[in-house]
Amino acid sequence: MATKHEQILQYINDLEIGHKISVRQIAKALNVSEGTAYRAIKEAENQGYVSTIERVGTIRIEKKKKENIEKLTFAEVINIVDGTVLGGRQGLYKTLNRFVIGAMKLDAMMRYVESGNLLIVGNRYQVHKLALEAGAAVLITGGFDTSEEVINLADELELPIISTSYDTFTVATMINRAIYDQLIKKEIVLVNDILIPLQDTYYMTTANAVEKWHELNQKTGHNRYPVIDENLKIQGMVTAKDVLGANKQTPIEKVMTRNPITVNERTSVASVAHIMVWEGIELLPVVDNQRKLIGIISRQDVLKALQMVQKQPHVGETIEDIIASRFEDYSTTTEHLFQCEVTPQMTNQLGTLSYGVVTTLVTESGSRVLKKYKRGDLVVENITLYFIKPVQIESKINIQPKVLEIGRKHGKIDVEIYHEGDIVCKALMMAQLLDR
Q1: What pTM was computed for the model?
Q2: Same domain, 75 and 180
């Protein structure tokens, strides 16, 4: 039987898109405490089908598919620009296709305004009205409002009209940044993208005996299985090592490993790879927030996903992309040498090379050297920066990694960074090497 928490989540999920939600209303409708209702609403927000907007409330929105993650809802725009809703609240769940900056004459501007757009404009009441009639939402900059007629029209058409105190340029930058951040998220592979779902998973229950492990092993050829109770909650993991020498009638609870490491479907695959390497695990159970089993993920699945990501083109540049694209390899047969220019994106508020970027430089150079010695993937275990001096913007730096030790599973690299012949950083990087 579903818990109260699950019943509330299902109730919220069944609500119409655009429906306004409140803690009190849900508590009354489902006869639960307000605390229980609040926790369920927060969970629904984390899962992406509810959005809370300051001064408006919480509304049911359409859960975005991963391929459409770069599109924003008007509700998200309000939070990005710290906006106030003047009218058209019923349309906050809708998705904007693109935004148009209204910084031209009316006739020229309206040629670009279409249904599903967001028009960013100042206090031009006539423009507000025409944009709404064309099917576009309106974002008014500079802290201005609009006429009563326009507000009524926005309510009638269910198209949001929003006001923000920021200027047009700042607003456009903020929305662009949010879309770019979403694009980066889109590139990150999560457990949810590659897990083997519960219906396709072989598992054991606490009521089983060791005999069941042998049956599954003969049927599937696998030797690791999650163990769950009657409520699907994860209780342990059982492997060939656990059942070795055990009587077939022994309860599986007696031999299984209790409290196994688990991940959830929002965990990144990169994080899972690190857990698997660090803990020496071949298979991880995937659970929901109630610790109910929803699937499994294997080391083989993780490695395939990481290799797939490396081959995919990226839409936007991360700091790692920026650094990698500016790396020039001047290595010889006797030493490894890379050169990189310090760009504005790589500096802190003082205009000097940021600590985080130095770490990335060490990782990038160390990884390139290790891959020259051993094909495959690697997981960085530890980076120690034990000497660092400020490096100015637009400086050219030389990075010299040296292999201290390399084995079948581990690599240790010493990295020195120079500017104009002077040493500005020394670091030590240790990594685990993964066979493909």
Answers
A1: 0.48
A2: yes
